Amino acid sequence: MFSCEPLHRRFASVIFLFCLSVFPVTAQEPADEVSSLGSELPMSSKDPDDVRQQDIAGYIGTTFRGRVSQQFEMYCPRSEEDLSELKSLGFTQVILDRPNHHTAATREGLKVVLGNWWAQDTKAEEIERGIARAREVDPETLTGFSVMDEPDRNTPETPFSFYRDLYEQLKPTFRREFPAARIEISHWGPMASLNSAQFEYYSILYQAADVMRIMPYPDLHEAPLDDVYFIIQRSRKLMKMADRELPLVVILQTWVLPPKNKLPEINELRVMAWQAMLSGAETVSFFDFNQEIWAQTPGFTEGFRSLMKELTGLSRQYRDHILETTMTANGILKSTLTSSTGHTTRFEINTQRHAVSGLGPLEIKQIDVPSHFNPEFADTVTQPDAMASANRTGHFIQEESLSSMAPHEIQTCLAPCACKPLISSQTQCIRFWRAAHDVRFQKRQNRRATRH
């Protein structure tokens, strides 16, 4: 299936670069300037308050328009049992430092991202091995190829221009041999503490990949949780500077930092994940799947399972909706989701650890939005929205798609107690009158179009 052309021919230029003891730096980036930029990049997950407040002012009240996240990823599964567990939790892909797990991941129906650690002193043979590993993965399963994890933190002496040049060298072969796999790279933050020169420097990384991985870890040092939203916005600013709009993988914390060894509380992780899903992340990722560490925090494993059920339900329910999301000055994320039929749902998320504007600490609330509907159904009594009580308990109620329902099933949904949970083999769901109406009305419109 793959070309047998020798690696040393196709990667001659890459190998040449790696055979140099020091990678050449472009004229725009003198070596001493790059060294200074690389060694002084802010690596804390908490910005000084005054710096942060000045930075986020430019993002308050702006509106993001896009779609709800559909992909869920976990770092570092350690066994085939881990892969099976992740699949059952609703994960769609894994990023592997252990390439021998790619076959098992494929069997489970999981997409695979291969992780690599390449810097300016990486040997040519290691690059060759990385490409060879990619050829071992089912081409329909290989979705990504990460060339480096956090170069800003792990190899600050390597100029970002190295990765930009490496990307240009790898791209032709990847487009030919691995057309479904995107070249990826991750970086810390971006934090508000970056000065203008450092911000410009980071934009070079956005010329070095097809997908950008970013790391909002506010809970490491009890920073405000709305940093997830603002870090995503800074990343989009970097895209504009690089003149490239890239898919985002937003990586959230399920690891511990010594000496406190503290995981986020599930409600904190929940608020962070909702922000990512409603603010433009293509993929919501978690680092990492270490059940031994998780077991040391009572209730975390069970809480994470419930959280994933909620997140995957949110993803399915609003897959085809257009969302508009904004952040207020007091940390309330407001998101409006509109279906193709005009049905509107609104969420308000208190990202603060204390009560704000009538919302409890870390509360996620759904707000009823009046819908316009066909007068033909005006005499039908709508049922109350059951989401409000569900959100108070921290559970998200899943709504199964009605698009394939038969007329008698829809009529059942419109029975006197339409809010009564209906049990299926997969899930317990509540089918709301509006959703049923939207589908029935659309089917009627389709029949009319067919007749004419």
Describe the structure.
- The chain is built from 17 helices and 15 strands.
- The chain has 452 residues and is of the alpha/beta class.
- The strands form 3 sheets. The chain has an 8-stranded parallel β-barrel, surrounded by 4 helices.
- α10 crosses α11 and α12 runs parallel beside α14.
Task: Give the secondary structure arrangement, pairings included.
Layout lengths: L6 H4 L1 H8 L11 H9 L9 H8 L7 E3 L4 E5 L4 H10 L3 E4 L5 H6 L3 E5 L8 H13 L5 E5 L4 H4 L5 H18 L4 E7 L7 H8 L7 E5 L11 H16 L5 E6 L12 H13 L4 E5 L3 H4 L5 H18 L4 E6 L4 E7 L5 E7 L13 E4 L19 H6 L14 H7 L8 E2 L4 E2 L3 H19 L1
Parallel strand pairs: 2-3, 2-9, 3-4, 4-5, 5-6, 6-7, 7-8, 8-9
Antiparallel strand pairs: 1-10, 10-11, 11-12, 12-13, 14-15
Look at the structure and give the mean pLDDT: 81
Based on DSSP secondary structure assignment, what is the total number of beta strands?
Answer: 15
Strand content is 15-25%
Radius of gyration: 24 Å
- Estimate the global geometry from the Cα principal axes: globular
User: Which strand order do you get reading across the main beta sheet?
Assistant: 2-3-4-5-6-7-8-9
- State the helix count: 17
Largest sheet: 8 strands, parallel, barrel
Poorly predicted runs are 1-28, 373-441
In short:
By secondary structure, this protein is α/β, with parallel strands linked by helices. The chain is built from 17 helices and 15 strands.
What are the salient characteristics of this protein?
452 residues; alpha/beta; eight-stranded parallel beta barrel; five-stranded antiparallel beta sheet; 17 helices; 15 strands; 16% strand; globular
